[in-house]
Fold this sequence. Notes:
This protein is α+β, with helices and mostly antiparallel strands. It has 7 helices and 5 strands; from the N terminus they run αααββαβαβαβα. Helix content is 64%, strand content 8%.
Amino acid sequence: MRTLSTRRGPQHEEEESVFVSMTDMTVSFLFIIMILLAFFASRFNAEETVPVAVYDPVRVERDALLEKLDRMEERLATAEAEIVDLISQRTALRATLVRTEAERDGALERLAEQDSRIGVLEAELAAALSERDILLRSVADLEDRLAAALARIEALRAALTLAETERDATLEMLSDRRDRIRELEAEIEALSAKLARLSRPDPLKTYIARVAVEREKVLERLRDALLADFPELEGVITSESDVLRFQGEGLFASGFDELLAARKPIVERIAQRLDALLPCYTLGERAAYSVQCNPAFAVIEAVQIEGHTDSDGADALNVALSARRGAATYAAMTAHQPDLIAHRNLAGQPVLSIAGYGEGRPVIDNSTAQGKATNRRIDLRFIMVTPGESAQIEVIRRQLRGEGGAP
Protein backbone atom coordinates (compact mmCIF):
# COMPACT_ATOMS: atom_id res chain seq x y z
CA MET A 1 0.00 0.00 0.00
CA ARG A 2 1.24 3.45 -0.88
CA THR A 3 -0.36 6.80 0.15
CA LEU A 4 0.12 9.88 -2.03
CA SER A 5 0.78 13.22 -0.26
CA THR A 6 1.47 16.71 -1.45
CA ARG A 7 4.12 17.12 1.24
CA ARG A 8 6.72 14.39 2.10
CA GLY A 9 9.08 14.61 5.02
CA PRO A 10 11.96 12.37 6.06
CA GLN A 11 9.72 10.29 8.36
CA HIS A 12 7.24 9.67 5.52
CA GLU A 13 9.99 8.48 3.12
CA GLU A 14 11.48 6.15 5.77
CA GLU A 15 8.11 4.49 6.45
CA GLU A 16 7.51 3.99 2.72
CA SER A 17 11.03 2.44 2.25
CA VAL A 18 10.45 -0.11 5.05
CA PHE A 19 7.12 -1.14 3.54
CA VAL A 20 8.64 -1.61 0.02
CA SER A 21 11.59 -3.67 1.32
CA MET A 22 9.39 -6.13 3.23
CA THR A 23 7.06 -6.51 0.26
CA ASP A 24 9.93 -7.18 -2.16
CA MET A 25 11.41 -9.81 0.21
CA THR A 26 8.11 -11.63 0.49
CA VAL A 27 7.60 -11.65 -3.29
CA SER A 28 11.16 -12.94 -3.81
CA PHE A 29 10.64 -15.79 -1.35
CA LEU A 30 7.39 -16.80 -3.01
CA PHE A 31 9.07 -16.66 -6.39
CA ILE A 32 11.78 -19.07 -5.16
CA ILE A 33 9.15 -21.49 -3.89
CA MET A 34 7.40 -21.36 -7.26
CA ILE A 35 10.65 -22.15 -9.08
CA LEU A 36 11.28 -25.12 -6.81
CA LEU A 37 7.78 -26.41 -7.36
CA ALA A 38 8.19 -26.02 -11.10
CA PHE A 39 11.49 -27.87 -10.88
CA PHE A 40 10.00 -30.72 -8.97
CA ALA A 41 7.10 -30.89 -11.35
CA SER A 42 9.43 -31.08 -14.35
CA ARG A 43 11.37 -33.90 -12.72
CA PHE A 44 8.30 -35.86 -11.82
CA ASN A 45 7.87 -39.22 -13.71
CA ALA A 46 5.19 -41.58 -12.69
CA GLU A 47 7.00 -44.55 -14.11
CA GLU A 48 9.94 -43.89 -12.01
CA THR A 49 10.01 -44.74 -8.33
CA VAL A 50 11.69 -42.72 -5.66
CA PRO A 51 13.26 -44.47 -2.83
CA VAL A 52 11.94 -43.69 0.59
CA ALA A 53 15.38 -42.68 1.67
CA VAL A 54 15.30 -39.94 -1.01
CA TYR A 55 11.64 -38.95 -0.67
CA ASP A 56 11.52 -38.53 3.07
CA PRO A 57 14.33 -35.92 3.29
CA VAL A 58 12.72 -34.00 0.48
CA ARG A 59 9.30 -34.22 2.14
CA VAL A 60 10.75 -33.11 5.44
CA GLU A 61 12.52 -30.21 3.74
CA ARG A 62 9.29 -29.28 1.93
CA ASP A 63 7.29 -29.35 5.16
CA ALA A 64 9.92 -27.22 6.86
CA LEU A 65 9.80 -24.77 3.99
CA LEU A 66 5.99 -24.67 4.11
CA GLU A 67 6.10 -24.14 7.88
CA LYS A 68 8.65 -21.40 7.39
CA LEU A 69 6.40 -19.89 4.66
CA ASP A 70 3.43 -19.86 7.12
CA ARG A 71 5.54 -18.13 9.72
CA MET A 72 6.68 -15.56 7.18
CA GLU A 73 3.05 -14.96 6.08
CA GLU A 74 2.12 -14.41 9.74
CA ARG A 75 5.03 -11.99 10.09
CA LEU A 76 3.94 -10.31 6.85
CA ALA A 77 0.38 -9.90 8.20
CA THR A 78 1.75 -8.50 11.45
CA ALA A 79 4.04 -6.17 9.52
CA GLU A 80 1.15 -5.03 7.33
CA ALA A 81 -0.95 -4.29 10.47
CA GLU A 82 1.95 -2.36 11.95
CA ILE A 83 2.35 -0.52 8.64
CA VAL A 84 -1.38 0.42 8.66
CA ASP A 85 -1.06 1.66 12.25
CA LEU A 86 2.09 3.59 11.37
CA ILE A 87 0.31 5.11 8.37
CA SER A 88 -2.61 6.15 10.66
CA GLN A 89 -0.16 7.66 13.13
CA ARG A 90 1.62 9.37 10.25
CA THR A 91 -1.71 10.86 9.05
CA ALA A 92 -2.51 12.13 12.54
CA LEU A 93 1.00 13.53 12.90
CA ARG A 94 0.69 15.16 9.49
CA ALA A 95 -2.63 16.82 10.53
CA THR A 96 -1.00 17.97 13.77
CA LEU A 97 1.94 19.30 11.77
CA VAL A 98 -0.43 21.21 9.45
CA ARG A 99 -2.23 22.79 12.43
CA THR A 100 1.08 23.59 14.09
CA GLU A 101 2.38 25.20 10.89
CA ALA A 102 -0.88 27.21 10.59
CA GLU A 103 -0.55 28.36 14.22
CA ARG A 104 3.07 29.23 13.57
CA ASP A 105 2.11 31.23 10.48
CA GLY A 106 -0.61 33.06 12.50
CA ALA A 107 1.86 33.75 15.30
CA LEU A 108 4.34 35.08 12.75
CA GLU A 109 1.65 37.36 11.28
CA ARG A 110 0.71 38.65 14.77
CA LEU A 111 4.38 39.13 15.55
CA ALA A 112 4.75 41.15 12.35
CA GLU A 113 1.70 43.25 13.29
CA GLN A 114 3.11 43.83 16.77
CA ASP A 115 6.46 44.84 15.26
CA SER A 116 4.60 47.29 13.02
CA ARG A 117 2.58 48.64 15.99
CA ILE A 118 5.79 49.00 18.01
CA GLY A 119 7.23 51.05 15.17
CA VAL A 120 4.16 53.30 15.14
CA LEU A 121 4.25 53.70 18.93
CA GLU A 122 7.95 54.48 18.83
CA ALA A 123 7.22 57.19 16.24
CA GLU A 124 4.38 58.56 18.39
CA LEU A 125 6.63 58.51 21.45
CA ALA A 126 9.28 60.44 19.58
CA ALA A 127 6.65 63.00 18.48
CA ALA A 128 5.29 63.24 22.05
CA LEU A 129 8.79 63.79 23.44
CA SER A 130 9.37 66.49 20.86
CA GLU A 131 6.03 68.14 21.73
CA ARG A 132 6.88 67.89 25.45
CA ASP A 133 10.14 69.73 24.83
CA ILE A 134 8.22 72.44 22.97
CA LEU A 135 5.67 72.70 25.81
CA LEU A 136 8.43 72.91 28.40
CA ARG A 137 9.97 75.79 26.50
CA SER A 138 6.51 77.43 26.27
CA VAL A 139 6.00 76.98 30.02
CA ALA A 140 9.34 78.60 30.73
CA ASP A 141 8.38 81.51 28.49
CA LEU A 142 4.97 81.84 30.22
CA GLU A 143 6.66 81.81 33.63
CA ASP A 144 8.88 84.67 32.51
CA ARG A 145 5.83 86.57 31.23
CA LEU A 146 3.94 85.81 34.47
CA ALA A 147 6.77 87.22 36.55
CA ALA A 148 6.72 90.37 34.43
CA ALA A 149 2.91 90.58 34.77
CA LEU A 150 3.12 90.19 38.56
CA ALA A 151 5.64 93.01 38.71
CA ARG A 152 3.27 95.10 36.59
CA ILE A 153 0.36 94.23 38.92
CA GLU A 154 2.31 95.37 41.95
CA ALA A 155 3.03 98.67 40.22
CA LEU A 156 -0.65 99.03 39.31
CA ARG A 157 -1.70 98.26 42.90
CA ALA A 158 0.54 101.03 44.14
CA ALA A 159 -0.97 103.39 41.59
CA LEU A 160 -4.48 102.20 42.56
CA THR A 161 -3.81 102.88 46.25
CA LEU A 162 -2.75 106.38 45.38
CA ALA A 163 -5.81 106.86 43.16
CA GLU A 164 -8.14 105.55 45.91
CA THR A 165 -6.63 108.05 48.36
CA GLU A 166 -7.26 110.87 45.89
CA ARG A 167 -10.76 109.52 45.21
CA ASP A 168 -11.61 109.43 48.94
CA ALA A 169 -10.50 113.02 49.29
CA THR A 170 -12.58 113.99 46.27
CA LEU A 171 -15.63 112.11 47.58
CA GLU A 172 -15.30 113.79 50.94
CA MET A 173 -15.20 117.18 49.24
CA LEU A 174 -18.17 116.17 47.06
CA SER A 175 -20.10 115.04 50.14
CA ASP A 176 -19.46 118.40 51.78
CA ARG A 177 -20.73 120.14 48.67
CA ARG A 178 -23.82 117.92 48.53
CA ASP A 179 -24.55 118.71 52.17
CA ARG A 180 -24.26 122.39 51.32
CA ILE A 181 -26.55 121.94 48.32
CA ARG A 182 -29.11 120.21 50.54
CA GLU A 183 -28.88 123.03 53.03
CA LEU A 184 -29.42 125.53 50.24
CA GLU A 185 -32.33 123.49 48.86
CA ALA A 186 -33.82 123.33 52.33
CA GLU A 187 -33.44 127.07 52.64
CA ILE A 188 -35.05 127.46 49.22
CA GLU A 189 -37.91 125.16 50.25
CA ALA A 190 -38.31 127.08 53.48
CA LEU A 191 -38.35 130.34 51.60
CA SER A 192 -40.78 128.89 49.07
CA ALA A 193 -43.03 127.65 51.87
CA LYS A 194 -42.82 131.03 53.55
CA LEU A 195 -43.61 132.72 50.26
CA ALA A 196 -46.50 130.31 49.72
CA ARG A 197 -47.83 131.09 53.18
CA LEU A 198 -47.55 134.78 52.46
CA SER A 199 -49.22 134.46 49.05
CA ARG A 200 -51.90 131.89 49.91
CA PRO A 201 -54.35 132.14 52.78
CA ASP A 202 -54.39 128.36 53.63
CA PRO A 203 -51.54 126.18 52.26
CA LEU A 204 -52.99 123.02 53.89
CA LYS A 205 -56.24 123.30 51.94
CA THR A 206 -54.28 124.05 48.78
CA TYR A 207 -52.10 120.97 49.33
CA ILE A 208 -55.11 118.73 49.98
CA ALA A 209 -56.84 120.08 46.87
CA ARG A 210 -53.73 119.45 44.77
CA VAL A 211 -53.48 115.92 46.19
CA ALA A 212 -57.12 115.30 45.26
CA VAL A 213 -56.46 116.48 41.72
CA GLU A 214 -53.35 114.31 41.55
CA ARG A 215 -55.33 111.26 42.75
CA GLU A 216 -57.90 111.83 39.97
CA LYS A 217 -55.05 112.01 37.46
CA VAL A 218 -53.62 108.75 38.79
CA LEU A 219 -57.00 107.03 38.50
CA GLU A 220 -57.55 108.38 35.00
CA ARG A 221 -54.09 107.30 33.84
CA LEU A 222 -54.64 103.84 35.24
CA ARG A 223 -58.13 103.60 33.74
CA ASP A 224 -57.03 104.83 30.29
CA ALA A 225 -54.05 102.45 30.24
CA LEU A 226 -56.29 99.49 31.05
CA LEU A 227 -58.89 100.48 28.45
CA ALA A 228 -56.09 100.78 25.90
CA ASP A 229 -55.01 97.25 26.81
CA PHE A 230 -58.59 95.89 26.92
CA PRO A 231 -60.97 98.07 24.85
CA GLU A 232 -63.79 95.60 25.42
CA LEU A 233 -63.94 96.70 29.08
CA GLU A 234 -65.46 100.07 28.22
CA GLY A 235 -68.29 100.58 30.73
CA VAL A 236 -66.91 97.90 33.06
CA ILE A 237 -63.91 99.89 34.35
CA THR A 238 -64.76 103.37 35.66
CA SER A 239 -62.97 105.89 37.84
CA GLU A 240 -65.05 107.74 40.44
CA SER A 241 -63.47 110.20 42.92
CA ASP A 242 -61.04 107.93 44.80
CA VAL A 243 -62.02 104.55 43.29
CA LEU A 244 -61.20 102.55 40.17
CA ARG A 245 -64.24 100.29 39.82
CA PHE A 246 -64.65 96.88 38.11
CA GLN A 247 -68.38 96.23 38.12
CA GLY A 248 -70.75 93.52 36.96
CA GLU A 249 -69.75 89.92 36.18
CA GLY A 250 -66.38 91.07 34.83
CA LEU A 251 -64.02 89.24 37.24
CA PHE A 252 -66.09 86.65 39.18
CA ALA A 253 -69.06 84.44 38.46
CA SER A 254 -72.07 85.00 40.72
CA GLY A 255 -71.56 83.32 44.09
CA PHE A 256 -67.91 82.41 43.42
CA ASP A 257 -64.65 83.84 44.71
CA GLU A 258 -62.27 82.42 42.09
CA LEU A 259 -61.16 84.72 39.29
CA LEU A 260 -62.46 83.75 35.87
CA ALA A 261 -59.63 82.37 33.75
CA ALA A 262 -60.51 84.73 30.89
CA ARG A 263 -60.34 87.75 33.23
CA LYS A 264 -57.12 86.84 35.08
CA PRO A 265 -54.93 88.62 32.45
CA ILE A 266 -56.87 91.84 33.25
CA VAL A 267 -55.93 91.61 36.95
CA GLU A 268 -52.31 90.83 36.04
CA ARG A 269 -52.18 93.87 33.74
CA ILE A 270 -53.67 96.01 36.54
CA ALA A 271 -50.85 94.79 38.80
CA GLN A 272 -48.27 95.63 36.14
CA ARG A 273 -49.65 99.14 35.54
CA LEU A 274 -50.01 99.80 39.27
CA ASP A 275 -46.45 98.65 39.98
CA ALA A 276 -45.17 101.09 37.36
CA LEU A 277 -47.22 103.98 38.82
CA LEU A 278 -46.68 103.60 42.59
CA PRO A 279 -42.91 104.36 42.89
CA CYS A 280 -43.55 108.10 42.37
CA TYR A 281 -46.18 108.24 45.16
CA THR A 282 -44.78 105.87 47.80
CA LEU A 283 -41.72 105.22 49.92
CA GLY A 284 -39.59 102.12 50.31
CA GLU A 285 -36.76 100.54 48.42
CA ARG A 286 -38.52 100.99 45.06
CA ALA A 287 -39.43 104.65 45.57
CA ALA A 288 -38.61 106.83 42.56
CA TYR A 289 -40.02 110.30 43.17
CA SER A 290 -39.61 113.11 40.67
CA VAL A 291 -41.37 116.45 40.45
CA GLN A 292 -42.29 115.66 36.82
CA CYS A 293 -44.47 112.66 37.74
CA ASN A 294 -45.77 114.03 41.07
CA PRO A 295 -45.66 117.84 41.21
CA ALA A 296 -48.19 117.94 44.08
CA PHE A 297 -45.96 115.87 46.40
CA ALA A 298 -48.91 113.52 46.91
CA VAL A 299 -48.34 110.35 48.98
CA ILE A 300 -50.55 107.28 48.78
CA GLU A 301 -51.54 105.95 52.19
CA ALA A 302 -53.20 102.79 50.89
CA VAL A 303 -54.42 101.12 47.72
CA GLN A 304 -57.27 99.04 49.07
CA ILE A 305 -58.67 96.09 47.09
CA GLU A 306 -62.37 96.07 48.09
CA GLY A 307 -64.75 93.23 47.40
CA HIS A 308 -68.52 93.91 47.15
CA THR A 309 -71.62 91.75 46.58
CA ASP A 310 -75.28 92.27 45.79
CA SER A 311 -78.06 91.85 48.36
CA ASP A 312 -78.76 88.18 47.65
CA GLY A 313 -77.86 85.82 50.49
CA ALA A 314 -77.07 86.34 54.14
CA ASP A 315 -75.07 89.40 55.05
CA ALA A 316 -72.38 87.44 56.90
CA LEU A 317 -71.92 85.13 53.92
CA ASN A 318 -71.71 88.10 51.56
CA VAL A 319 -69.06 89.80 53.73
CA ALA A 320 -66.98 86.59 53.70
CA LEU A 321 -67.50 86.18 49.93
CA SER A 322 -66.45 89.78 49.22
CA ALA A 323 -63.34 89.38 51.41
CA ARG A 324 -62.40 86.18 49.57
CA ARG A 325 -62.82 87.98 46.24
CA GLY A 326 -60.56 90.77 47.44
CA ALA A 327 -58.00 88.20 48.65
CA ALA A 328 -58.12 86.33 45.31
CA THR A 329 -57.52 89.59 43.45
CA TYR A 330 -54.65 90.47 45.82
CA ALA A 331 -53.07 87.01 45.35
CA ALA A 332 -53.26 87.21 41.55
CA MET A 333 -51.78 90.72 41.48
CA THR A 334 -48.88 89.98 43.85
CA ALA A 335 -48.17 86.64 42.17
CA HIS A 336 -47.77 88.44 38.83
CA GLN A 337 -45.95 91.47 40.31
CA PRO A 338 -44.29 90.39 43.61
CA ASP A 339 -42.70 93.85 44.03
CA LEU A 340 -46.12 95.37 44.68
CA ILE A 341 -45.73 94.63 48.39
CA ALA A 342 -42.46 96.63 48.45
CA HIS A 343 -44.30 99.97 48.08
CA ARG A 344 -44.66 101.61 51.53
CA ASN A 345 -46.60 104.51 53.04
CA LEU A 346 -45.20 107.11 55.43
CA ALA A 347 -45.55 104.68 58.34
CA GLY A 348 -43.49 102.06 56.51
CA GLN A 349 -46.52 99.83 55.91
CA PRO A 350 -47.35 98.16 52.56
CA VAL A 351 -49.81 100.35 50.67
CA LEU A 352 -51.60 97.35 49.12
CA SER A 353 -54.38 96.03 51.38
CA ILE A 354 -57.68 94.07 51.27
CA ALA A 355 -61.20 94.78 52.51
CA GLY A 356 -64.56 93.02 52.13
CA TYR A 357 -67.81 94.99 52.50
CA GLY A 358 -70.37 92.44 51.38
CA GLU A 359 -73.62 94.15 50.35
CA GLY A 360 -73.07 97.14 52.69
CA ARG A 361 -71.84 99.65 50.10
CA PRO A 362 -74.04 99.40 46.99
CA VAL A 363 -73.53 101.92 44.24
CA ILE A 364 -77.00 101.34 42.80
CA ASP A 365 -80.34 99.91 43.90
CA ASN A 366 -80.38 96.07 44.16
CA SER A 367 -84.01 95.87 43.05
CA THR A 368 -83.10 94.94 39.46
CA ALA A 369 -80.84 92.31 37.93
CA GLN A 370 -78.77 95.07 36.34
CA GLY A 371 -78.38 96.81 39.69
CA LYS A 372 -77.25 93.58 41.36
CA ALA A 373 -74.74 92.95 38.59
CA THR A 374 -73.35 96.45 39.09
CA ASN A 375 -73.01 95.98 42.85
CA ARG A 376 -71.11 92.68 42.39
CA ARG A 377 -67.76 94.37 41.89
CA ILE A 378 -64.13 94.94 42.90
CA ASP A 379 -63.07 98.51 43.80
CA LEU A 380 -59.47 99.67 43.79
CA ARG A 381 -59.59 102.55 46.31
CA PHE A 382 -56.71 105.04 46.48
CA ILE A 383 -56.41 106.60 49.95
CA MET A 384 -54.05 109.59 50.03
CA VAL A 385 -52.15 111.05 52.98
CA THR A 386 -53.90 114.20 54.28
CA PRO A 387 -51.76 116.08 56.82
CA GLY A 388 -53.47 117.64 59.82
CA GLU A 389 -51.39 120.83 59.72
CA SER A 390 -49.30 122.78 57.26
CA ALA A 391 -46.00 121.89 58.95
CA GLN A 392 -46.46 118.26 57.96
CA ILE A 393 -46.42 119.14 54.25
CA GLU A 394 -42.70 119.88 54.36
CA VAL A 395 -42.02 116.64 56.18
CA ILE A 396 -43.92 114.75 53.45
CA ARG A 397 -41.87 116.48 50.76
CA ARG A 398 -38.61 115.61 52.50
CA GLN A 399 -39.59 111.98 52.82
CA LEU A 400 -40.58 111.77 49.15
CA ARG A 401 -37.18 113.22 48.23
CA GLY A 402 -35.50 110.66 50.50
CA GLU A 403 -34.23 113.22 53.00
CA GLY A 404 -35.65 111.53 56.11
CA GLY A 405 -37.87 113.03 58.77
CA ALA A 406 -41.10 111.82 60.31
CA PRO A 407 -44.64 113.17 59.90
